[in-house]
Amino acid sequence: MSAMKEEHVHALIARLESMKDEARELLRGDEPPGDEPARDPDERAEAQRLEEIAEGRRETTHDALSAIEHSLERIRTGLYGRCARCGCAIPPARLFALPTTTHCTVCQAILEAG
Ligand SMILES: [Zn+2]
After folding, report:
1. 87 inside domain
2. CA of residue 104 to ligand 1 center, whole Å
3. How many angstroms separate the alpha carbon of residue 106 from the centre of ligand 1?
4. Of 8, 11, 95, 98, which is most buried by a Cβ count within 10 Å?
5. Chain segment 55-112, per-residue pLDDT in tens
6. What is the spatial distance between Cα 67 and Cα 11, in angstroms, rounded to a whole number?
7. Which residues hold their Cβ within 5 A of ligand 1, which is an ion?
8. Does residue 65 lie in a domain region?
9. CA 114 to centroid of ligand 1, rounded, Å
10. pLDDT at site 1
């Protein structure tokens, strides 16, 4: 079973589920504006710029959604709360701050240092 206290697991599942809803809501509300052709080149350039920003945001949200799904899967399989690199128990405070994290602070620092 998971190394975590059951009440922590429940709280984190609730947290992840609400993050998932938020991400889905963002993706839904962020559809391309449809067929409203801009009239002049400036407007077109601006529309394209906004679309590029929206596209970047969609990608980020998509990645976040995958990370959330991955975390929920890890909770189901009992792997959640364990560092994927060293296998230590990730402190609950870190999990509450960053529910989708898969590494302890030590390994995260090592990975980020390359
Ligand atoms: Zn670790």
Report:
1. no
2. 4
3. 6
4. 95
5. 999 999 999 999 999 999 999 999 999 999 999 999 999 999 999 999 999 999 999 9
6. 17
7. 83, 85-86, 104, 107
8. yes
9. 15
10. 46
List the domain range (segments joined by +) for residue 41: 6-80
Question: What is the CA(98)–ligand 1 centre distance, in A?
Answer: 15
Query: Separation of 53 CA from ligand 1 center, angstroms?
Result: 34
Query: 16 C-alpha vs ligand 1 centroid, how far in Å?
Result: 21
Q: For residue 34, is pLDDT > 70?
A: no
Amino acid found at 106: V
Structure tokens at 112: 């980020």
What is the tally of structural domains in the chain? 1
Contact predicate 75/9, CB 8 Å? yes
